[in-house]
Design a protein that fits this description.
Elements: E1 9-14, E2 21-31, H1 48-60, E3 65-68, E4 72-84, H2 86-91, E5 99-107, H3 110-118
Antiparallel strand pairs: 1-2, 2-5, 3-4, 4-5
């Protein structure tokens, strides 16, 4: 099973100096377009139903603060977030693609903005906590 995926920043909107930079990207790929699950770097598989509930809970609790490389927090705020499975993508007219969590982030930190604009920061990663349970594979 593939365990590494590049999650590149897909759209960067810059309104000029002193204003926030907006980044739109896929934050996590949960399953391929054919429905087969994707393992993350830690070997976890996140079912789309669980991801959808997690997104709802995060948004109900006021959203997320963006950080830099899991080290520094407060560089921006997640202002949009959605988990879509393959069927939802098709129903919304997005075409065939992976089940994923999509995010929109408003970056306010000037150093991080400069690093994104220069191309130094081209990818993102998400961090979170969850209770895990072993996957039982059918014999």
């Amino acid at each position: 099973m593939q365990t590494s995926l590049r999650l590149e920043l897909r759209k960067v909107t810059d309104e000029g100096d002193g204003k926030p930079l907006t980044v739109t990207a896929i934050a996590a790929i949960l399953a391929r377009a054919d429905g087969s699950p994707v393992e993350d770097f830690q070997g976890h598989i996140i079912p789309i139903e669980e991801a959808d509930l997690a997104v709802e809970q995060v948004l109900d609790q006021g959203g997320l603060t963006a950080g830099e490389m899991h080290e520094r927090v407060g560089v921006g705020k997640v202002i949009g977030m959605m988990a879509l499975d393959v069927e939802q993508r098709l129903a919304l007219g997005f075409g065939i693609g992976p089940a994923a969590i999509f995010v929109k982030i408003r970056v306010t930190d000037p150093v991080v903005k400069r690093r994104i604009k220069s191309g130094e920061l081209r990818e993102l990663s998400i961090a979170g906590e969850a209770e895990t349970e072993p996957v039982v594979e059918a014999a």
